[in-house]
Specification:
Layout: H1 4-9, H2 14-20, H3 32-40, H4 45-60, H5 62-70, H6 79-86, H7 90-98, H8 103-124, H9 137-159
Helix pairs in contact: 4-7, 4-8, 4-9, 6-8, 8-9
Length: 162
């Protein structure tokens, strides 16, 4: 079955995963509650803008990036574990909060946003006929409607490999 966990694991995001690997990979062994939380999360353009602001700032901050790598955020088996590890990186926490997000929301949004973009792209390309239950109809509709705006916003995050 194609689930959010499957979708998230299959995403190749060079820089974002290099610097924000914790933001996507923890769901590989996520709990049913994590899956529900990510499915229930609703994207908005304002949230996407905050996400891009936070991710860009984290990429530019070598201390925040180093702390995230040192704390092995990508090995967090759940949202709760991710949040605990992320909070050990005060610089990254300050960046995320300064952008108007909570660390947990950054991780949830990463999973929802990137798996959703991938699924919308797959549907548009005819690779899938309908969306799996891992993406809410609301997020699918939002991403379809705003693809021309969101794509360019995310592009710098995926291209700025250092």
């Amino acid at each position: 079955m194609f689930t959010l966990n499957t979708a998230v694991r299959s995403i190749a995001l060079p820089t974002l995963l290099a610097t924000l690997s914790m933001a996507v990979t923890p769901l590989r062994a996520g709990t049913p509650a994590d899956d529900k939380e990510t499915r229930d999360y609703r994207l908005t353009m304002e949230k996407v803008q905050k996400y891009v602001t936070a991710a860009t700032a984290i990429q530019a901050d070598s201390k925040a990036t180093r702390c995230m790598k040192d704390n092995e955020l990508s090995s967090a088996p759940s949202l709760d574990a991710f949040e605990k590890k992320f909070n050990n990186c005060p610089g990254a926490v300050a960046i995320v909060k300064g952008a108007g997000l909570a660390p947990r929301e950054l991780m949830v949004m990463s999973a929802v946003l990137f798996s959703g973009v991938m699924l919308v792209g797959m549907k548009k390309a005819g690779q899938i006929q309908k969306y799996p239950p891992s993406i809410s109809p609301e997020n699918a509709a939002f991403l379809e409607k705003n693809a021309d705006k969101i794509g360019p916003m995310l592009q710098p995050l995926m291209k700025s490999e250092k």
